[in-house]
Structure formats: structure tokens, C-alpha cells
Amino acid sequence: MSKQMKATDARLKTADELKALLLDLRKAQFNLRFQRASGQNEGIGQVKQVRRDIARVKTIMAEKTISATKS
Question: How many domains are contained in the chain?
Fold first, then answer.
């Protein structure tokens, strides 16, 4: 997960794909937190990136939910 995810790419995914992506990002976030706690400081910049990607996915999921209820 070193590369930043683009919002346009995430918008093309289905709801199930977004849920799976969110789960993967949460696992990556947990692993990075665990590495930080154990003293392995290799992914300091990745923590911020993963956190932003999680927010991006959650925002797109909310947008899709809102647009589905309006239709």
C-alpha cells in the first residue's frame, strides 16, 4: 500500500469491492501500528497515507449510500 489510491479509481469499484478494500486498509493500518509499537520505524509516512486512504474509501462509500437512497 505504498502508492496513493486515487478517488476516481475507488469510485469505479462496487460496494463489495470497497468493503474489501476498507478491510485491507484497516489490516495495513493495524500492521503499521504494530510495527511502530515494536520499534520498527520503517513505515512512518505510510501511517498517514493509509489513514487518508481509509477516509477516502469511507467518504466514497457514504456518497454511494446517499446517491442510492435518493434514487
Answer: 1
pLDDT in tens, 11-52: 999 999 999 999 999 999 999 999 988 888 776 789 999 999
SS3 12: coil
Q: Which amino acid is at 41?
A: N
CA distance linking residue 7 with residue 1, whole number of Å: 15
Residue entry with cell 520503517: 42
How far apart are the C-alpha atoms of 11 and 8, rounded to whole Å?
Answer: 5
pLDDT of residue 36: 87
Q: Are 11 and 60 in contact (CB under 8 A)?
A: yes
Residue 1 domain flag: no
pTM: 0.85
Domain of residue 31 covers 7-70
